[in-house]
Amino acid sequence: MPRVLALHPRMLRGVTVPYKATVLTDDGTANTGAVATLASRPLLMAGLGAATISWSAVFVALARQAGASAVATAFYRCAFALPLLIALAAVEQRRRGPRPLALRARAAMAGGFLAVDLILWAHAITAVGAGVATVLGNLQVLFVAGIAWLVWHERPSRAVAVAIPVVMLGVVLVSGLIGTKSTGLHPLAGVWYGVGTSLAYAGYLLTLRRASAASRHVAAPVAEATFGAAIATLTFGLVFGGLELQPAWPAIGWLALLALLSQTAGWLLITSSLPRLPAAVSSLMLLLQPAASLGLAAAILGQRPTLLQIIGAVLTCGGALAASMSATKAAAEAEVSPLG
Question: Of 68, 106, 150, 157, which is least packed with CB atoms within 10 Å of its CB?
């Protein structure tokens, strides 16, 4: 996965897409160097964001092993990320002005979907294992494409339609569902947790995308969604239990890393790219996460991939990249004044 992402800028040299300046890509002056590269490559930003959040499965697994509950994992992930996100949002507001209340409310509602996603995903990891849970959580590509088509008439391109079954085959192979036995404690329950995770994840991506599309803000939508998720998980923990207010070390350390890398850095990159890409393409790009998680699990947790899992990683990355390049070219050609 690191090699795929390293080659990404050269592979996409001829790909352009209209975009709006954001706090990550514009400071009021001309963009240069690496910042300009990010500004003109929303697919690169989405890919880097997906690579960053691919650490989530490892951190969640380590935190769970250290004794953190599913609700605590979700809550502390959001709570630890909020101070930095709020500071970035304040700086952004001075540059861009305040966001409309309706967009803030929509982003907070996206946080409600995120809370459900994070809690169910943590349960799925325990029930069916990290690999299968990550795959089931990324079935959102089907839900996102279908909802975006039905609700917002974003009909998937032919390339995206062809890539979806290829990518889905890839994530199934990555999971180890074929050729290996399940190591989960409750496979059937894990499947339902995974499907629920996918539905919540689709709701989060689509709602956050709509809360960001009409705004030049990036940090603010992520901060608002994270705040909404923190409130939702806190409420859930207080009502139904399972929320430890002081998780033991090293769980708190893994959750802090989870917050800073995945919830902050990863989602800032992803939120910058979502409004500039078709919904189905954004979702396909995020399917790079399970492939990257496979490599991280091998390096950190000692979970060596099989040949079928390696083939699945290639299918996942190749299908997502091909569909993204095709759809982005089509979007650029459809604009009256595309930016290079």
Answer: 150
Residues above pLDDT 90, as percent of the chain: 20
Q: In terms of C-beta distances under 8 Å and separation of at least 24 residues, what long-range contacts does 88-95 make, across chains too?
A: 88/23, 88/219, 88/223, 88/268, 89/217, 89/219, 89/220, 89/222, 89/223, 89/224, 91/23, 91/219, 92/23, 92/217, 92/218, 92/219, 92/220, 93/217, 93/220, 95/23, 95/27, 95/28
Domain segments of the chain as ranges: 2-334
Distance set, CA 227 to CA 80, 114, 155, 190, 337 (Å) = 11, 10, 32, 27, 37
DSSP class per residue in 10-33: HHTTT--------TTT-SSS---H
At 158, the amino acid letter reads: R
Residues 6+ apart with CB under 8 A from 180: 306
Tell me the pTM: 0.71
